[in-house]
Amino acid sequence: MKRTSYFLLLLSVIILIPGCSNDSSGTPSDFTPSLTQTAKKINIPELNLKISINEGRLVFESQSAFDAAVKALEEYEKTNLGSKLRSALQADGYITPVTKQDFTFETSGFLSLYDDFTTAMNEAENYYDTEEGYKQFKEKHSALFFAEQPEDYSAYLPVSNKSVAKFLNAKGEVEIAGEVKDIRDITSYKQLIDNGLVTAESELVNLRSTVNRLDEVKCNDRKLWVIVSTRPGTSLGVYEEVVVEVCFRKKGFLGIWYNYSSETTLGWAPPSTGQWPKSGYSSHDYIWPRGHGAAPFQGRMWVQFRGFGEECGDTKYYFDVNK
Question: What pLDDT does 40 receive?
Answer without folding.
Answer: 86
